[in-house]
Design goal:
InterPro entries: Spore_V_AE (IPR014204), SpoVA (IPR005562). Helix content is about 85%, strand content about 0%. It has about 120 residues and is mostly helical. The chain is globular and about 50 Å long. The protein starts with a helix and ends in a 5-residue tail after the last helix.
Amino acid sequence: MIFVWAFVIGGLICVVGQLMFDVLKLTPAHTMSSLVVAGAVLDALGWYDPLVKFAGAGATVPITSFGNALVHGALTELERDGWVGVITGIFDVTSAGISAAIIFSFLAALVVRPKG
């Protein structure tokens, strides 16, 4: 049943993004930024962790989880290290994912050549 809920919740997040494109006529950058901020706000309110427990990958794969990771890391490190942790916590939590994205993008650029 967890797969069904992951599909439904992940799909709903994607539907919200698509509606932002179609109805609100937002650019991809505005849509992505809005979804990141929504994930950050949901984490600050304490609602994103229950959503992750309920939907699993349906809540951790979409872009909203990046906002969640930023706020979650900052708040966790704030409790541990004080105000310096607000900055270091962001990098601590997101560095592996960002590093992986950079490395895999570089490797893909070596293999795939654009046409034109």
